Amino acid sequence: MIATPAAEFSTDKGATRPVLMDLKNITLRFGGVVAIKDISFDIREGEIRAIIGPNGAGKSSMLNVISGFYVPQQGEIWFEGQKRPPMKPYQVARLGLARTFQNIALFDGMSVLDNIMTGRLNKMKSSLFSQALWWGPAEREEVENRAQVEKIIDFLEIQNIRKTPVGRLPYGLKKRVELARALAAEPRILLLDEPMAGMNVEEKEDMCRFILDVNDEFGTTIVLIEHDMGVVMDLSDRVVVMDYGRKIGDGTPDEVRANPEVISAYLGVAHE
Amino acid sequence: MSNMQSAEAGLRSIPALLARNAAQFGNRAAYREKEFGIWQSWTWAETSRQIRDIALGFLVLGLKPGEHVAIIGRNRPMHYWSMVAAQMCGAVPVPLYQDAVADEMAYVLGNCGARFVVCGDQEQVDKVLEVGDRAPAVQHLIYTDRRGMRKYDHSRMNALADIQTEGRAAEQRLGAELDARIAGLGYDDTCVMLYTSGTTGKPKGVVLSNRNIIETSKNSAGFDRLTEAEEVLAYLPMAWVGDFIFSVGQAYSAGFTVNCPEGAQTMMTDLREIGPSYFFAPPRVFEGQLTSVMIRMEDAGRIKRGLFRHFMDLARRVGPSILEGRSVGPLDRLRYGLGNLLIYGPLKNTLGYSRIRVGYTAGEAIGPEIFSFYRSLGINLKQLYGQTEASVFITQQPDGAVRPDTVGVPSPGVELKIAESGEVFYRGPGTFVEYFGNPDSTASTKDPEGWVATGDAGFFEEQTGQLRIIDRAKDVGKMADGRMFAPKYVENKLKFYPNILEAVVFGAGREFCTAFINIDLTAVGNWAERNNIAYASYQELAGHPQVYAMIRDHVSQVNASVAEDPMLSGCQISRFLVLHKELDPDDGEMTRTRKVRRGVIADKYADLIAALYDGSQNVFTETEVTYEDGRKGRIKATLRIEDAQVAPPALHVKPRGIAA
């Protein structure tokens, strides 16, 4: 008889891979409010890195720092061994970062296909003029990009809604389309802001499978914020725990689960 | 020409037909599959090469003649090719239902003892791995879709494409061996083994020979004059005999094109894009399409709605006659032509039926309105009656003699007889060889002369000579006065009303017939909303006097239509009640495929049945229900029993026995 599948998703992935992004002593303030206080952690090539914490802990702010939307007052971001100067989000996107949003940010009136095509924007080089005329290189370029988008559509199993306007889709599918658009940019790092929020169990299971498959198949590094602890502990290689803008834990899911500070802050105080 | 005829005689296996097609229709499309949003296609010549490479790959892995090769996956060219490749090696393909859970799969895999299993994707692989020791023979797992498969232990696992590449490389080494095996395929060797779903007991492996499949395919293709130009859409489960006949048997025999949809959910879009010329669908597909058309028409503007209504009335009046080539007045013909331009043509195009030449439906009764809707549009929809054990075809309707309530004349080469009990028996070229490893079942189903019991009761209609199926033979009984009792016949008529979800008719050994009715919550709920009828629960809605009045109306209409049939006029429903809960598989009242379990219902609701016959007006009952999570509860209700109008039996036809 055939042996059972080989080792489950290995947990030592984070420790052995090279560092892709290193965040050093990040501090972010909005006026008098300190959203992020002196946080350092790294993201390794090909891992799934989760950021968790109670509401208002600064998780989304952290993601926005990574994506370049917020510029921290203090601290440094190192990407592939080089210090990243303050950048606009579109410049960061060109470095190979893509993200999804907590509140879906798609173009409702456009079809699923067109929405995903917008994710290819950074891959298109021909001018607006030649694209409008659908001439020569522009045509070839669109065909190439469309082929790439079709692969993603196939990957995320959304063939049946290819031509459907996004506004008509249920929530769970919109989330999947958003993931598709992020993937269309062929990112090195994929930032997911609460990818499972508001989903039912079945949709969550699907989404988990897609995240694991993206990580496995394309080798994409994934940083995700998520509230569902079961999902986080199952998916992630390493977890950063935040509370009131501070980092209170960092490690594998098992380490984090055993960390007393994390237990008291996030899961409630443990009683003797 | 004489050359070709002598060649015909040598076509005694699917691989032989493949070789003929590659030579004769080399540049015609054999398969198409939509992938990455584009229809990819393979000609017969390319297909032949692909299949040969897979077969060589199987030889590399050591596939032996006579072995079973299990195939689990959706309709994809690669899966059809694997079946034919297995046949080339002298092995027997065994397609399995891809939605079966691991436990069901364990039985079938264990029973057929397959060493090779071809899986469509990771999901199927996981199920086969879960089966584990319950199918100890499984040695090689082969998968089509590589996705998610990288981390599995590959010591006994391969991607089908890799096997194909290895096979291509082994042409020099193993080509002669493969040719010898193909040449050795005999007409009475097994072509395919298909498991029947088995409403009672374990599934049985039906062994069908090359003779069964090829003769049946040739006969039935001749019956409908199918040519190499047909287009079919392969979307029904590969494990079902119909798909094997349509997408393999007839496709290879006639040489036509098999189109595989992108996925199960894109089926309707793909249907429209392909526009098949030969199409099969169970009644629920046609029902679903009609419902969606009607709902969209309700939302359309006034002019469109008016046009639609006007031309559909015309189509209903003259459409079937035009389709069957009967005489129709020139004015009506002109108006129908206009309708075709404005309504029928665009509608057929939307449904994907623009090019349809032959369409079949079977499996269960189709509502007469639904049936005539499609026929009036000029779609040649017909009915057939078949079984796995018959390689599908027992009877089918010839062009020009199509009726909604019959299933046609015996298929070419098939003989029929009807036993004293009313049960239909058949014998023909497609009659199965045996149940695999089950001589007892084989003997009890097929007698030494080759007659097979269908388990269905029916009779031949005198005026048309077509077979009409009444019910399952074991359900057909006699009433107290000896009149025939066929519950499903009446239940089907009731269920054609959208408001009625289920019906259970009683009457065996009784003076008159009675019925339980289940309302359809969606339809009746909708109706209640439109008519401002307030209700708080299913139970309250089911017991509402206006609902009762509506159901009584339906029952009376059914009675009138049952009365038209002198043989079955005794089955009219005298008294009925509307059940306070939906019949549910969780409570054991139905099977998972939603077939009523009469025995369970008769036991559980004995008090209600007694009340139907003792003349009481109300009955109090308490019923146990099982919730989805397995908890149990009880519901109490007082149900009203009403009398329905019973029509006098039609007298103009003299009663006759059921034996033909």
Automatic annotation (TrEMBL), chain A:
Q: Which GO terms describe its cellular component?
A: plasma membrane
The organism sits in which domain of life?
Answer: Bacteria
Q: Where is the ABC transporter domain?
A: 21-269
Q: Which GO terms describe its molecular function?
A: ATP binding; ATP hydrolysis activity
* Pfam families, alphabetized: ABC_tran, BCA_ABC_TP_C
**Record bears the keyword Transmembrane:** no
| Annotated coiled-coil segments of the chain | none
Q: Which SUPFAM superfamilies match?
A: P-loop containing nucleoside triphosphate hydrolases
Matching entries from SMART domains are given as: AAA (SM00382)
Which Gene3D superfamilies does this entry report, sorted A to Z? P-loop containing nucleotide triphosphate hydrolases (3.40.50.300)
Keywords, alphabetical? ATP-binding, Nucleotide-binding, Transport
Name of the protein this chain belongs to:
ATP-binding cassette domain-containing protein
Record organism: Paracoccus litorisediminis
TrEMBL record, chain B:
Which domain of life does the UniProt lineage start with?
Bacteria
Question: What keywords tag this UniProt record?
Answer: Fatty acid metabolism, Ligase, Lipid metabolism
Residue intervals of the AMP-dependent synthetase/ligase domain? 19-436
Which Gene Ontology cellular component terms are annotated? membrane
Q: Name one Pfam family in it.
A: AMP-binding_C_3
Q: Which PANTHER family match?
A: AMP-DEPENDENT SYNTHETASE_LIGASE DOMAIN-CONTAINING PROTEIN (PTHR43272:SF32), LONG-CHAIN-FATTY-ACID--COA LIGASE (PTHR43272)
| Name this polypeptide is given | AMP-binding protein
Q: What is the lineage of its organism?
A: Bacteria, Pseudomonadati, Pseudomonadota, Alphaproteobacteria, Rhodobacterales
